[in-house]
Structure formats: C-alpha cells, structure tokens
Amino acid sequence: MSIYLVCIALLALLCLLSGFNVSMLRGSSGVFYGADPQPDSKLYKAQRAHGNTTEYAPILAVLIYALSQSPQPVWVLWCVVLVTVFRYVFVAGILLPPTMAETNPIRFVGALGTYISGLALVVAVLIQATG
User: Fold this and answer.
1) For residue 108, what is the domain's CATH number?
2) Which of 64, 112, 113, 117 is deepest in the core (most CB within 10 A)?
3) Alpha-carbon distance 123 to 3, whole Å?
4) Other CB atoms closer than 10 Å to residue 107's CB: what's the count?
5) Number of domains forming the structure of the chain
6) What angle in degrees, to the nearest 10, is found between the helix axes of 74-95 and 3-29?
7) N- to C-terminal Cα distance for the chain?
8) Residue 61 has pLDDT above 90, yes or no
9) Of 47, 39, 54, whose CA–CA distance to 21 is shortest?
10) What's residue 63's pLDDT?
11) What is the torsion angle, in degrees rounded to the nearest 10, for the CA atoms of residue 19, residue 23, residue 24 and residue 30?
C-alpha cells in the first residue's frame, strides 16, 4: 500500500465531501448563489471549509505525488500523513464550533500543522530536486 497515494486520495475526498456538503446545504436552505457572510451561518462555514480545502489540497497533492516518485526518509512520510490529518482537523475546526467569529484551538492546530508540515514537504521536494 502506498501511503502517499492514500493521502492524495484522502485530500481529494476531503475536497469532494466538502463540496457536496455545500451543495446539500444550498439545497436545504434555498440559497443557490453566494451566502450571507455571517460567522455562524452553516452555509458560510461550509463554503469556507470547501474554499480553504480547494486552496490547499491541490498543491499538497502535487508535493506528495512528487515525493512519492523516489524513496524518501521516514520524516517525509510522517509529514505526508500529518499534513493530511491537519487538513481534516482544520475543516473540523471550521464546521464544528458554533461560530467562526471566535478563535478555536481545533482550527488553530489544523492551520499551524498544515503550515509546518506543508513547508517540510516543500523542503523535501527541494532536497529531492537538488540531490
């Protein structure tokens, strides 16, 4: 089993499920364009979760795929798994709290973890490219 491909698939699944969630909320609310940007609106939170996922998942998937093309040290594999987990944590941090108007530790951990592990993947690709 390729952990790299599993993580790419999980990022794609997050993108598709978050998009489906937006569609379902649009259907149930009758709001078919835009959303009221209220931090406690379920539709707005779903849109932000999906939008953020579509901003990060593609580049992370490209980095993961590039790294999957040659043997990597164990720390790279851990970063691949962690960045995938942190994306799910971030989405949970948007959708689960009652409002986005307040900071919450779930969203903070998801964002910080994405930045740190994502930058580590960039470093790994640069090492691969120059090695």
Assistant:
1) 1.20.120.550
2) 64
3) 19
4) 21
5) 1
6) 10
7) 26
8) yes
9) 47
10) 98
11) 150
Indicate the residue type of 56. Y
Q: Which residues contact 70 (CB under 8 A, 6 or more apart)?
A: 128
Tokens linked to 65:
């795929």
Say if residue 36's pLDDT is above 80: no
pLDDT > 70: percent of the chain: 100
The residue type of 46 is: A
Question: With helix as H, strand as E and coil as C, how does the chain read?
Answer: CCHHHHHHHHHHHHHHHHHHHHHHHHHHHCCCCCCCCCCCCHHHHHHHHHHHHHHHHHHHHHHHHHHHCCCCCHHHHHHHHHHHHHHHHHHHHHHCCCCCCCCCHHHHHHHHHHHHHHHHHHHHHHHHHHC
pLDDT value at residue 91? 98
Q: Which domain holds residue 7?
A: 3-130
